[in-house]
Amino acid sequence: APAALINDITSTLTGTFFTVDGSSNIGSATKGTRPGHPYADIVFAFAFQRVLRNVAMNLDKQGLRPYIPSGKHGTIHAQPPTQGTFLPIPAFFDDFVIIVLTKFPQALFSKARAALTCCADSMAIHDREINDEEGKTEVIIEYNGKGAEAERKALHSPHNTATSHIRTTKSFHRALCIKVVSTYKHLGSHNSGITNYDVECVNRISSAKGAFAPLRRKLFANRLIGMRKRVTTWQALVLSRLIFHISTWAKINEASWSKLETFFHVSLRQLTSTTNKDFTRANVTARADANTMPLRCIISMRRIGLLRRILQHGPTWFHGLLQNTC
After folding, report:
1. Helix 40-61 × helix 108-124 angle, to 10°
2. Which listed site, 86, 196, 241, 315, has its alpha carbon 20 to 30 Å from 213?
3. How far apart are the first and last CA of the chain?
4. Are the beta carbons of 164 and 173 closer than 8 angstroms?
5. pTM (2 decimals)?
6. Reduced to 3 states, what is the DSSP secondary structure of residue 22?
7. Looking at the DSSP assignment, which residues form a beta bridge with residue 67?
8. What are the strands, taking DSSP E only, across the chain?
């Protein structure tokens, strides 16, 4: 790369001074990249990748990262077998998720504590800290398998204060106190574990309603505007909010499906001015008029598209996971 480009990129980390309109003072950020620079997000992502690699390496040394065997070597393991690969750390800039597994539910708390301590120590090497304020870093404990129901009830008991937080021993910077929650918000989605999407389902519908209701009469039900334009706008503003991230959901229960489909068809019937009292027929007519598929088909297509995009990158861990689940 040209020396001028290298110097320009380097300056986003070293020359972190900035000015504010209307002020004669000059500010300087002590960490991260220079605010307002067009390279800032990209450079930060590359720089933070070094931190994540170090976190992953130290988690692996302590056997804390789940392992996906390759070929027909069994299911996902808490400890590495002879062949396979470690589960990647999902990350979006400085937001990332650490996943830990245990054979027995009783061991999950201690392993989560060990993973948090390891993560904090690994980040401290790069002069980074975990923000353990409420709403910034949180833990979801999900129990499955033998003895899971008793542990789940004990965890969420109002009389249980011992497991309301995970406290780590002092790392390079300080000890951590991370709250255990049943749901948390991340990148616009409410996460409640891989088997519970009730909260997120309600929020998806609420968000879609918020986009549809103000424009219902002036736009969506306005026959002076062509059907194709109304449907395209509905897809961009309403449907996109309703099915945001749903392609990544593991399993949607029938109650949630019913709620999603009810709003989907109500908005479509209003969009296409379908008034048949037989809702089943009205829904079919509305979908035909709007030239759209049933909601379950739309989401299935999104899931297939997501798998196709992942397979294009050919990660070993994903191929191993497919071979063990198909």
Report:
1. 130
2. 196
3. 45
4. no
5. 0.61
6. coil
7. 77, 86
8. 17-19, 26-28, 67-68, 85-86, 91-92, 95-96, 138-139, 165-167, 177-180, 184-186, 189-191
